[in-house]
Amino acid sequence: MDLRKLKTLIDLVSESGISELEVNEGEDRVRIVNAGSPAPAGQVVYANPAPVQAMQAAPAVAAPAAEEAPAETGFVARSPMVGTFYRAPNPESPDFVKVGDTVKVGQTLCIIEAMKLLNEIESEQAGVIKQILCENGQGVEFDQPLFIIA
Description:
Mean pLDDT: 78
Helix content: 10-25%
Number of helices: 2
Order of helices and strands: HEEEEHEEEEEEEE
Shape: elongated
């Protein structure tokens, strides 16, 4: 069973409010259990005759704006890790960069918090910030586009 089918099943369980779903497809068996948390999420257990793998389902809250192809062209600065995106070092401080700012190689663009560690993400290319593709406090995935620099 491919990952798209798994994602669809997880979304169905999250949206419908059912507590459990089990699907058999040939030798593959999938059981999705809704944890019942305020933000619906499920637990997936994917069993094969081979070893059993368990995955925690991603929260149903996805940011469609971040998934869309960037409107601007230029160098795309991507997330090197999974975590939470922050535009400033703390809520009272100004953002590291804004649209229209000129950046140098090595200049801090943002912070990504991963496992309680704050990781400064630096620019890999000099240029002007054309677009910021994430919202402050938004969860980001590995290799997700963050900025467009031209």
